[in-house]
Design a protein that fits this description.
This is NACHT domain-containing protein. The chain is of the alpha/beta class. It has 25 helices and nine strands. The strands form two sheets. A seven-stranded mixed β-sheet has the order 2-1-7-3-6-5-4. The longest helix has 29 residues. The C terminus is likely disordered.
């Protein structure tokens, strides 16, 4: 693909602001990225906007340029004048920038880098390391997809960039041509000092030569007809489709790589471009599944881990495309899938209550059953389960709004940090403390009341609340310590899923053990009087550990994984998504259907996202999810 400066003078700054040479030029080919990187380094302010029509390879060129700049950064740094900073290019989807929260580019960069690269927040680097990198000009943001944000927000982004960029700040951005032109018109001025380049469409001869290189030395008769139709332009729709890198790749993937007969390309399909495009996108998923066989080899980054059913894969991706509609967002965040489920708040509250009632009730039943028999055990289980379940379920219907947390359980070299976190962490307010104390006091007090009497019930309730609040503070301290990243911490979709799962499950240990010890006294006070100290202590441990584990799972922050599991199971029962959602997303990434940017997935090709989002769903579309500012 060839690239050149745009001929639309209205969308680009004057040449003297873009480069020092008298005759500004920028010509290059995607297969000679070294030359393009050199021209980028030669721009006065190193700012570049890559525009083009859908499927022209804008993001591909941006990623190629990013990799080349990274590979030569050390060498280029030595060649520059002393003191000049060559920043590190970082790919960032523009769809994640909420101007209402972060009006300046630098503010958003600090927030986004801290989330996508947790190692930058490691204690070893000190506080403010991310801010220092951004303020010092060490980050070159590669902003992908201006056209993928809401139309009314695009001019605001241009204005925010012009207000944020200093004389030494560099930038690379991608956008569809029409959307970028309208954004510049809406902003009232071009992007300061940025060169704007556009691609030239592939000629039919170039497209035919590319396909011929992908075929056997002696192509089949059908392929000979397709190549001839391209070269003599007898099939207008075929030639127009093959004029873009995406269209050419679709033809190669669906027919050349899979071994399918391409005869239909010169038939009725070759007459209408829209029909041909829709056909190629429909056949893309089964073609990739056929050609990319599963592999467990760690080096096989472009092969799925398991064989996927083409129809099921299409159905699942269609749900995601419609749950994350391209008009709102292109970011597929696993923790936001739950928001596509109607009444998710009520479902999570109900499930949370059932989990609490079941585990807590079983613990209470076993504990009191040891001392007082089966009847008292059943009564205790029902009482504790109902009260505890309702208190937890009603109070935690906001889980669907939570984002995943980072977890690091490495002890080596971090014991002192753990001790400091436990010592310093306190419940933030009296209201928060009461929210922790009252459910425990009420549930334990009523449980003791119905089994042993009023006096013991009151005593148990009065001791239970403050004791449990203390254990909460200890548990929160441990969680705060676990959230501290290290220099090796990474943030991917799967790592964020596992980290939040770890934070959710680990709370059960610091909650369960202290609360179990406390219950040795509380339950032992009642059951020990009737059955002896040994049974009382054992009863307290059984009951306390069970209740503590429940509180650990359901209280506090970090329920994105738990809500994700609940939502994915609900959607799996409906056939909308697979049971193992993260495994599916990873395989879709390996198949080349999705791409990963930090912990977020996107459709690798916007055309596929648009195509699947337009598929009739056969019913009401679930509540869409996207950037909070667009809801």
């Amino acid at each position: 693909m060839c690239w050149k400066l745009t001929g639309n003078e209205a969308v680009m700054s004057q040449g003297r602001l873009v480069a020092t040479q008298t005759n500004l030029t920028f010509d290059g080919r995607s297969d000679d990225i070294v030359a393009i990187a050199g021209q980028f380094r030669g721009l006065s302010r190193c700012r570049l906007v890559i525009t083009g029509e859908p499927g022209m390879g804008k993001t591909t060129l941006a990623v190629q340029l990013l990799l080349q700049l990274l590979a030569t950064r050390t060498q280029d740094q030595l060649a520059t004048r002393q003191g000049k900073v060559l920043p590190i290019p970082v790919l960032l989807p523009l769809s994640g920038w909420d101007l209402n929260v972060h009006p300046r580019l630098q503010e958003w960069l600090v927030d986004r880098l801290a989330k996508d690269y947790p190692a930058l927040s490691a204690p070893e680097l000190g506080s403010g390391a991310v801010g220092a990198l951004v303020a010092g000009g060490y980050i070159l943001p590669v902003l992908d997809g201006l056209d993928e944000i809401a139309q009314h927000a695009r001019p605001k982004v241009i204005k925010a960039l012009n207000a944020s960029l200093g004389s030494g700040d560099q930038l690379i951005m991608t956008s569809r041509t029409a959307e970028f032109t309208k954004a510049i018109a809406g902003a009232g001025r071009p992007l300061n000092g940025a060169a704007v380049i556009v691609p030239t469409r592939l000629s039919p001869q170039d497209a035919a030569a590319y396909l011929r290189a992908c075929l056997p030395r002696l192509p089949s008769e059908s392929w000979c007809k397709v190549l001839a139709a391209l070269e003599n332009r007898s099939s207008a729709a075929l030639a127009e489709t093959a004029a873009t890198p995406l269209g050419l790749w679709l033809i190669r993937t669906v027919y050349a790589d899979s071994g399918a007969d391409p005869a239909e390309l010169t038939g009725p399909l070759g007459i209408d471009r829209a029909s041909l495009r829709a056909h190629l996108l429909d056949q893309l998923i089964p073609a990739l599944i056929r050609t990319r066989t599963p592999s467990t080899d760690r080096s096989g980054h472009f092969r799925p881990r398991r064989r996927r059913d083409p129809d099921a894969t299409r159905r699942h991706l269609t749900y995601l495309a419609q749950a994350f509609p391209p008009a709102i967002t292109c970011d597929i965040a696993w923790w936001r899938i739950a928001a596509s489920v109607p009444q998710i708040r009520h479902i999570t509250g109900l499930v949370g209550g059932v989990v609490a009632a079941t585990l807590g009730g079983v613990g209470a039943g076993l504990a009191l059953g040891i001392a007082y028999g089966l009847v008292h055990g059943l009564v205790a289980a029902l009482t504790f389960g109902l009260v505890f379940g309702l208190a937890v379920g009603i109070g935690h219907t906001c889980w669907a709004d939570e984002e995943p947390g980072h977890a690091n359980l490495r002890l080596r070299g971090r014991m002192r940090l753990l001790a400091q976190s436990v010592r310093r962490c306190k419940v933030a307010s009296s209201v928060t403390r009461l929210k922790v104390m009252l459910p425990a006091a009420l549930a334990l007090g009523l449980t003791a009341f119905v089994t042993t009497g009023f006096e013991v019930g009151v005593a148990t309730g009065l001791v239970a609340g403050p004791t449990f609040a203390l254990t909460v503070e200890v548990a929160v301290g441990v969680v705060v310590w676990a959230e501290k990243p290290t220099l090796t911490s990474v943030s991917t979709a799967i790592s964020s899923w596992k980290s939040d799962r770890t934070l959710t499950l680990m709370r059960g240990v610091p909650f369960g053990i202290p609360f179990g010890l406390a219950c040795c006294y509380m339950v032992g006070l009642s059951s020990g009087l009737a059955s002896g100290l040994t049974i009382g202590v054992a009863t307290g441990l059984v009951f306390g550990v069970s209740a503590g584990l429940v509180f650990g799972l359901l209280m506090g922050r970090h329920h994105a994984w738990l809500v994700g599991v609940i939502a994915s199971c609900y959607l799996a029962l409906r056939g909308e998504l697979p049971w193992r959602i993260m495994s599916f997303l990873d395989d879709a990434h390996r198949l080349g259907l999705l791409r990963a940017v930090g912990p977020i997935y996107q459709f690798r090709h916007a055309d596929l996202h648009d195509h699947l989002a337009a598929v009739p769903s056969g019913g009401l579309l679930p509540e869409t999810v996207g950037h909070p500012s667009e809801r």
